[in-house]
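Students often ask why we bother encoding 3D structure as a string. The short answer is that it lets us treat folding as translation between two languages. Here is a chain of 271 residues written in the first language.
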Amino acid sequence: MTPDKLFSLNGKVALVTGGATGIGRMAAHGLVAAGAHVLICSRKGIACAAVADELNNMDLAGSAEGFAGDVGTEEGVAAVVAEVMKRTESLHILMNNAGRTWGAPLGDVPFDSWEKINSLNVAGMFHLTQSLFDLLEASTTDADPARVVNVASVMGEIPMGDGAYSYAVSKAAVIHMTKILGRELAPRHITVNALAPGPFVSKMTAFAIGQDAQSDRVGARVPLKRVGQPEDVAASMQFLCGLGGSYITGMVIPISGGIQLTTGPSLFGED
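And here it is in the second language, the structure alphabet:
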């Protein structure tokens, strides 16, 4: 195997939900750069089309197209699946990235925040994956399985609420679901893994790290002393969806600068 083939996704078709901004946009760029044809969907179809046009004008190896889709409801999932099947007869990669958050101090968290978060972050993700099983399975071989990549969060791995209780718990559910589906779909030659990002600059985190000074402040609290960069997501997706990920399933890749290793102050060392 020559080095130029190790991360090639030429001929692959991918769907990235929530792909117009943030982690999804970073992933879509990485997949297109590796040669994939990427379907980008989110509730804002115009934004998805604009991102696809931008990627198509960057002289990358692959291509993209964007359309509107809401995977937060049963009807919305069905519409996204129908749209995907109109646009392609094969699907090699599914990235479940669409998600939302909700923040409030402990004592002020509204009851309905749980349904709003979990209907998209957990139920929508599961139902879309389930609805695309057949299309994914049709694209597999023993040596080159189809890939599902779920977007979790470092907050789903460690007890860190930071006011986003329903979000953190939903991401813990994503991690557990990733392991369950990784086990159950392996015989069908479909791998299921997850990314667990730490702090990245995006619309979702703009309130905390939207400015350079804020980014530096947050980055200083990360063990590797910086916030995430787009290349961190793009390269992780190229690895998981290329040859490197063909024998990996049910795993969580922490792209969080080591936050998942943080356990609090030393018990016996100096402050």
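Translate back mentally: The chain has a mean pLDDT of 91. Keep this in mind for the problem set.
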